[in-house]
Design brief:
Largest sheet: 4 strands, antiparallel
Shape: elongated
Strand content: 15-25%
Number of domains: 2
Structural class: alpha+beta
Order of helices and strands: EHEEHHHEEHEH
Strand order of the largest sheet: 3-2-5-6
Length: about 160
């Protein structure tokens, strides 16, 4: 299964709602959200072009992704050679148009990253019902906090919502 862009946005909205509950419960927290898989990560508010550039593993491998990666490579090659002009602009417009057709990995996780490591707070979060206790490592050796998968947020519209 995968998520289209509208479903991705619903999941992100639900994840942000969940994060706001965490922030209310732990006001000293200095953290932000990312979308993550073992192959990479990107910011929670990244658009389709940014996701393709930073975290192509999040985009389902289909004909649209293949075409987008080809367009992206052609644009970079033309810019590198210094042949950017009207053709590059046309390629950029085509790339922008097709990125809205992407499908995204529903197994992608919404995770917290910390501006400031406050270990007591992180250890408290590891056991909090507001995070996914199955996906969050329950050890003091880890600072990884997982709120859930995109699928869980797309389906449940977020815990506590």
């Amino acid at each position: 299964m995968s998520l289209d862009y509208a479903q991705l946005q619903l999941a992100i909205t639900a994840a942000k709602r969940q994060f706001s509950l965490i922030q209310a419960k732990y006001p000293a927290i200095k953290a932000y959200l990312v979308l993550s898989l073992p192959s990479g990560q990107t910011g929670i508010d990244s658009g389709p072009l940014q996701i393709l550039a930073e975290f192509p593993g999040m985009v389902i491998g289909d004909a649209v992704k293949t075409t987008a990666l080809d367009l992206q490579a052609r644009i970079k090659a033309m810019e590198w050679r210094g042949t950017a002009g009207p053709e590059v602009e046309q390629l950029r417009k085509e790339l922008e148009r097709i990125t809205w057709q992407f499908n995204y990995e529903e197994t992608c996780q919404v995770e917290m990253r910390f501006h400031e490591l406050q270990f007591d707070l992180i250890w408290a979060l590891q056991a909090d019902e507001l995070v996914d206790l199955q996906l969050t490592p329950q050890t003091k050796a880890s600072i990884r906090i997982v709120l859930g998968t995109l699928a869980s947020f797309a389906g449940a519209r977020g815990k506590g919502a």
